[in-house]
Amino acid sequence: MTQHRPLRGRLDQLLREIAKFGAVGGVGILVNLGVFNLLRGTTEIPVVRASIAATAIAICCNYIGFRYFAYRDRDKNRRTREMTLFLLFSVAGLVIENGVLFTATYGFHWDSPLQSNIFKFLGIGIATLFRFWSYRTWVFRALPVKDAESFLKAPAATPVPEDTKQGTKQDTEQSDPSQRVT
């Protein structure tokens, strides 16, 4: 039974991480598709260029969500490195996402608004798998176990008053005569 607890704890932590990633990603999808359809419907910008612009705006929104919500407990010491890697992997995701749309639009001439949205959404899905792996592995790295343990064992911010502390030998002897050592 004790062997399953660490595995269960890691699984629970992974599921919480996926849920937070999904919440931020859900907002990113709404921003991405909203901007894409706004640009596509109100401008003469070609489909893939409108998609690239929408993806870039969603990437900016997602960084804020990932840094300050989904991965707020992760290492913050190397912010320049983090942002550089985030942009690098986000651009790779942008290429994956818009490569699907490009192929559908210019390879198969599927460029109606409905078809564009379907292939944009499909591209987002494929790119999301890549982004999840790359962000958690390279960008928002977990604190080393030693640092995480010291963070968890750190004293409370407010000191405990002397009259509420328990457990001294003298307190035990005075409160429970049966516990006295003679």
3D structure, described in words:
Helices cover 74% and strands 0% of the residues. By secondary structure, it is mainly alpha-helical. Helix 2 (47-70) runs antiparallel to helix 3. The two termini are 42 Å apart.
Q: Which ranges are low-confidence, i.e. pLDDT below 50, for 5 or more consecutive residues? A: 156-161, 167-173
Q: Proportion of β residues?
A: under 5%
How many strands, which pairing sense, and closed or not: the largest β-sheet?
none
Helix content: over 70%
Count the E strands.
0
The coarse silhouette is elongated
Give helix and strand order, one letter per element, not per position: HHHHHH
SSE-based structural type? mainly alpha
Alpha carbon gap, first and last residue: 42 Å
Oligomer: single chain
Q: In angstroms, what is the radius of gyration? A: 25 Å
Mean pLDDT: 83
SS element count, helices: 6
Keywords:
about 180 residues, 6 helices, elongated
Quick overview:
By secondary structure, the protein is mainly alpha-helical. 74% of the residues lie in helices and 0% in strands.
Task: Describe how the helices and strands are arranged.
Elements: H1 4-42, H2 47-70, H3 79-107, H4 113-139, H5 145-153, H6 169-175
Helix pairs in contact: 1-2, 1-4, 2-3, 3-4
